[in-house]
Structures are given as structure tokens and as C-alpha cells.
């Protein structure tokens, strides 16, 4: 199974990615998690990413694309993978096509998890209280949602036109959303 997970911040990508990775026994690759680990470890990559992340902007494509290409060159993706949060704009989608072509593989599905602005804002503000993530403030959440609408949402049409897009409602209990996703993927 080779999957991409797309959805606005707070739709539940990271939450569902962990469950899907376990179910399909594939590695979950979250660009957001990789960046956060590097910011925490104060690596060169973390220093490059930090200012963009805390402002709610996308980390530049040349940094993100190179990082994903390296990650997908590792042995554990041979049996499949789940990309959580990549691609996030048209340039990254083109790069992913090129990486997959070099690997001689194709995506099985691009899973879009939907949730409205009111719901995702409430979830992220709640997460701010629990985890204290720097990009979960009201102002930065607004920017992240704008970036999603402008840069990321358009790539779903691109994947729909290829017939690989699977859209699932992300509102409701986490278990119910997982069941919806698995049912939708099985139906393909
Ligand atoms: P991400 O880490 O991808 O952050 P996110 O969009 O907020 O999603 P996340 O996976 O964390 O949250 P989820 O919806 O699961 O990106 C962070 C930043 O990294 C970006 O802004 C950008 O700067 C940078 N970045 C990442 N990828 C990049 C790329 N490709 N290019 C450039 N820059 C990139 O969950 C949110 C909350 O909702 C959680 O608290 C969860 O518990 C809760 N929740 C989940 N499901 C729920 C449900 N069904 N009901 C109630 N609550 C639920």
C-alpha cells in the first residue's frame, strides 16, 4: 500500500496515520514530525524549518523535497509507505511524481480527510492546551488554514483527475473516522 494523506491542519492526519500504518504494516512518514524532531534537536535542517513552521508557512520546497527523496530511498519503504503531510503544494506533487517514477512505483490512493474550519480550529486550540505546540495559536492556525486553501487544496483536484483521490469525512469519533477510511480504501 502506497498512500498519501491530505487534509487541513487539525483534520486528523497524524492521528489516522498512526492507525493506518499499523493496520497496513507500513512506515508512516510525517514531514511535520521530521521537521519537529529536527527543530528539537537543533540540527541545521531544524534551524532552516523553524521560522517557517512557527509562522504557519510552508518550509521551502527545496528543503522539503530533498528530505522526502532521502527518506523514500530507505529500505523500509520497499513494501509500501504512508506519506502524512506531503505533498502540500503543486511543486511538491510534481516532485513526488518524479521520485515515484525513479522508484518504479505508483500511488494506490490519496486520502483526503475533510473537516470544517470551526472544527479544526477548536481541535488545534485544544491541542495547544495539551501539548503547547508553537504553531497552535489562533493567529498561526488562521495562516495555516489560508495556506491550506491556497496551496494544498488545489492538489486534490489534480489527484481526483487521475482517479486516485479518496475523500473521507474527518468529523466524529477517531475510531469511526478510521473505520470510514478503511471501508473507503477497501472499496477501491
Ligand atoms: P503537520 O505536522 O503536518 O501538522 P498539522 O497539519 O497540524 O496536522 P497534524 O497531523 O499535526 O494534526 P492532526 O490533524 O492529526 O505540519 C506542521 C507544519 O510543518 C506545517 O504548518 C509546515 O510549516 C510544516 N510542514 C509539514 N509538512 C510540510 C510540507 N510538505 N511542506 C512544507 N512544510 C511542511 O490533529 C490535530 C488535533 O486534532 C490533535 O490534537 C488530535 O488529537 C485531534 N483530533 C484528531 N482527530 C480527531 C477527531 N476525530 N475528533 C477530535 N479530535 C481529533
Keywords summarizing the entry:
188 residues, alpha/beta, five-stranded parallel β-sheet, 59% helix, binds BIS(adenosine)-5'-tetraphosphate
Word description of this protein:
By secondary structure, the protein is an alpha/beta fold. The protein is built from eight helices and five strands. The longest helix has 24 residues, at 138-161. It is globular, with a radius of gyration of 16 Å. The mean pLDDT is 97. The structure holds BIS(adenosine)-5'-tetraphosphate. BIS(adenosine)-5'-tetraphosphate is lined by residues 9-15, 30-32, 35, 52-53, 56, 58-59, 64, 85-86, 88, 92, 123-124, 127, 135, 144, 172, 174, 177.
Mean pLDDT: 97
Separation of termini? 12 Å
Q: List ligands, each type once.
A: BIS(adenosine)-5'-tetraphosphate
Q: Over the alpha carbons, how many angstroms does the gyration radius reach?
A: 16 Å
Record the strand order, biggest sheet: 2-3-1-4-5
Helix and strand sequence: EHEHHHEHEHHEH
The amount of helix comes to 55-70%
Q: Short description, anyone?
A:
It contains eight helices and five strands, in the order βαβαααβαβααβα. It has helices at residues 13-24, 31-40, 44-55, 61-71, 90-103, 117-131, 138-161, 174-186, and strands at 2-6, 28-30, 81-84, 109-114, 165-169.
